[in-house]
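Hey team,

Filing this mostly as a record. A colleague (T.K.) asked me to run one chain through the structure pipeline before their review meeting, and I want the input and output archived in the tracker in case anyone asks later how it was produced. No errors, nothing strange. Just documentation.

Input sequence:
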Amino acid sequence: MKPYPRRNDLSREQKIYNYRLCRCRRIVENAFGVLTSRFRIFEKSITTSIDKVDVIVKTSCALHNWLRKTSPTSYTPPGFIDEECQRSGLRLGTWRQNASGGAFENITSQNNRNSTREAIRIRDNYCHYFNNDGAVPWQDSAIF
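Output structure:
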């Protein structure tokens, strides 16, 4: 998914979409960053069959969730994960200090900056959803 371009010329709805997309990307980045910092297998490419990779990823996620629930202060101590602060904006988590990027580091861009009509339609549908049924109470204050 791509944000709407041209920050200064965006409508309120487009700004909300861009904010929600950015927030989502941060959450996903946090999840992969924490997994990589806690489970060594994600520090490099996993060279095994797709079926085994699927099991490894699902097991890591289940173990991660269990550790977050049963040992939150030791597994993810305060400040370890990125946090959104009302006054200062985003506070980056300490997991980033030791992050090497791992297997995700070598993912390259396709250098295709042109969105397809289908991608634009999907983005517009999400924009509509985020500004109607999927609206959250804080989104307006986050964009202004």
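Quick notes for T.K.: Residues 12-38 form the longest helix (27 residues). The helical segments are 12-38, 50-70, 72-75, 117-130, 139-143.
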